[in-house]
Design goal:
The two termini are 50 Å apart. Strands 11, 12, 13, 14, 15, 16, 17 and 20 form an 8-stranded mixed sheet that branches. The longest helix is centred in the N-terminal third of the chain and has 54 residues. Helix 16 packs antiparallel against helix 17. It is built from 19 helices and 20 strands. The protein is of the alpha+beta class and 536 residues long.
């Protein structure tokens, strides 16, 4: 977004009319083409327009012309307003100066279109006809664009057209709400009917499920064909004749029937009791039983009655799902920090946080591209895997959070997602260990690889991005400065900012870098080489 706006700024400086020139072209336009005072004036009135423009003369001319058609015009010279302002002032349309895009117009327009309460409000951008500027306006979500010199009949006609469309959308929204209410009521009625149908369906479906009556002693009194089929017997008679002791012959767990009987004595009924049983051929399946106690006319317990479901397939699927969930959880924790992974599983898809004290490390293999040209692809990947795995172990040892790898570059940070007071110290320690560890890896010519490392500390924004392939990433000046420390560093060196030096110089050895480094946005700044730990 920033790059796009910056390019537009360049175009504005080079091509845009000045405010005074814009005024002249506006006046000439209105002199050459006088206002048509009969353009749907009756349709226009009693609607509030927000004019955001920095040229007072232009604001005055536009306000007077639009008020001629009974529009109420509120004019401001900045975009530092929230969508709630538009709602509280009942703004129906926004006229926005294109030159404001160089400051904050792009963000304002984009925010306006993202908010539910204001996304339908039309936005008309006023400016010169520079194609890049026009494209920027529409990319930000503008609904129309009017170029200078202004032709007021055209401006009024476009305003009326956009307001008409806005009113139609509002009417459609109201109609949609009425339809939703009607659908909701109809759904409630259908749910009530469905519940009634479910009762009758259950009665019907039970006829195809296993049904039994069993005695207190643990023998079957009667069973239906479906139960015989579930248990693998040829007929109900076959089942009753051969399965003479339910507790000893049916359940895989020997004491299972005793547990069910104890439960029934206390609660009278069991719903969905799941058990593993033997079929006639000795194979095992899972069943779900709903059992109740049946009493005779004298209120004396007579027998048990129950319904049986074969849930073997469901149990198998549940077991497979549990295994897959465990595997997915392990993969997610490998991709994201553990705390972030847990929040992502149970909370919102978008996670963004601010951290005031974070230390960021960037490391890059020096002249790795040249070395990779002399290596086979598999050999190259194996080498990078060994190097980064070594860095991963160091990060785990020192308590850093690995953020990502980009090509032959490695990024890590300390102080997030859980803050820690020694974040600068542990990053410095890891950087020194990384320089030692890289010496164990050699280039194709036999010389050891070398690292450039940069470190910076300060506030960052951290969050999860992506829809399908999640990534935990960091943003902010601290990140940019750490990257700059690495890119302007030297082989086998660790370049750090003055903040790092001030916090660690009593425990670590440093060398001032003569002349410092140039950092975009900051200019020339001092930096230091971290050379080692001081001996205590």
């Amino acid at each position: 977004m920033r790059n796009l706006v910056w390019k537009n700024n360049v175009g504005l400086r080079a091509d845009n009319l000045s405010l005074s020139a814009m005024k002249e072209t506006w006046v000439l336009s209105n002199q050459a083409e006088p206002l048509n005072t009969h353009v749907n004036a009756n349709r226009a009135g009693d609607q509030t327009l927000l004019l955001i423009h920095r040229a007072s003369d232009t604001v005055q001319h536009l306000t007077e012309s639009l008020e001629h058609f009974n529009y109420r015009v509120e004019a401001i010279a900045h975009t530092d307003i929230q969508p709630s302002f538009l709602q509280s002032h009942q703004v129906k349309l926004v006229l926005l100066e294109a030159q404001l895009f160089s400051d904050s117009g792009y963000e304002f327009c984009h925010t306006l279109k993202q908010a539910r309460s204001s996304r339908d409000i039309p936005v008309i951008v006023l400016g010169d006809r520079d194609p890049q500027q026009v494209a920027t306006a529409f990319a930000a979500g503008a609904d129309d664009y009017v170029g200078v010199p202004f032709a007021m009949p055209e401006v009024v006609a476009r305003v009326q057209a956009r307001l008409s469309g806005y009113q139609r959308r509002q009417q459609l929204s109201q109609q949609n709400q009425l339809l939703l209410d009607e659908v909701r009521e109809r759904k409630q009625t259908e749910d009530a009917l469905r519940q009634t149908e479910d009762k009758y369906r259950r009665i019907f479906e039970n006829a195809t499920e296993g049904i039994f009556q069993s005695s207190i002693a643990g023998t079957y009194i009667s069973v239906n064909p479906a139960l015989a089929q579930i248990y693998g017997y040829d007929s109900p008679e076959d089942l009753i004749e051969n399965l003479t002791d339910i507790g000893a012959s049916l359940y895989v767990q020997p004491k299972r029937r005793d547990e069910l009987v104890v439960y029934l004595q206390q609660f009278e009924k069991i719903v969905g009791a799941e058990s593993e049983i033997f079929r006639k051929d000795g194979s095992k399946i899972w069943i779900s039983e709903t059992i109740r106690k049946v009493y005779d006319e004298d209120d004396q317990f007579s027998y048990y009655e129950g319904i049986v479901h074969d849930i073997t397939e469901r149990r198998s699927m549940e077991m497979e799902l549990r295994q897959q969930r465990k595997q997915a959880d392990r993969l997610l924790v490998n991709i994201l920090p553990y705390q972030i992974a847990q929040r992502l599983k149970t909370g919102p898809r978008t996670i963004a946080e601010s951290f005031d004290e974070v230390t960021v490390l960037f490391a890059d293999l020096v002249q790795f591209t040249a070395a990779s040209n002399a290596m086979e692809p598999k050999e190259l990947v194996d080498l990078l895997n060994q190097v980064f795995s070594t860095f991963d172990r160091l990060a785990e040892q020192h308590g850093l959070e690995k953020i990502k790898t980009i090509g032959d570059a490695y990024m890590a940070a300390a102080g997030l997602p859980l803050p820690r007071p020694d974040h600068i110290d542990v990053v410095a320690h890891m950087a020194l260990d990384m320089q030692k560890a890289i010496a164990d890896f050699t280039r194709p010519d036999g010389t050891p690889f070398q690292l450039r490392i940069g470190i910076s500390t300060g506030p960052v924004i951290a969050g999860v991005i992506g829809m399908r392939k999640f990534a935990y990433d960091l943003w902010g000046d601290t990140v940019n400065l750490a990257s700059r420390m690495e890119t302007t560093g030297a082989a086998e060196r660790i370049q750090v900012t003055p903040e790092i030096y001030e916090r660690l110089h009593h425990r670590y050895n440093f060398e001032a870098r003569g002349g410092g480094v140039f950092v975009k946005g900051r200019g020339q700044m001092d930096s230091y080489w971290l050379t080692g730990r001081k001996h205590r």
